Amino acid sequence: MQPYSPSGLFPSGRPPRPTYREPHPVSGAGVASGAVGALVWLALFALLGRSLAGYAWWTLLAGGLAWLAALVLVRFGDRGAAAGIAIVTAGGWSIATVAVVTRWVAGGDWPLW
């Protein structure tokens, strides 16, 4: 007769398996705070541009700096905030790209030079 081996469904006398935890878990509040911060950051930089070309270049610069901050946050800080920053920055870059391409198609001249 073979010895009884528990299926794991019911607790046995064995110690529990180890659980691994994320050192910096992502939370909804972190994502929202990163998104709001990036939105304000991009809006302030976008206001510096006096033309479409200025708006596009300032948005590109602000987005690059925001992504650097997000990379630092991914490594050492709140990954949720980094995700919010990355999402909003991608959206801001998309809006600037659509504006530039729309002017390019409508006018026939590349507006960034």
Automatic annotation (TrEMBL):
Chain segments annotated as transmembrane: 26-49, 55-74, 81-106
Protein name, UniProt field: Uncharacterized protein
Presence of keyword Membrane: yes
UniProt entry keywords in alphabetical sequence: Membrane, Transmembrane, Transmembrane helix
Highest taxon of the lineage: Bacteria
Organism listed in the record: Micromonospora craniellae
Record carries keyword Transmembrane: yes
Chain residue ranges for the region called Disordered: 1-25
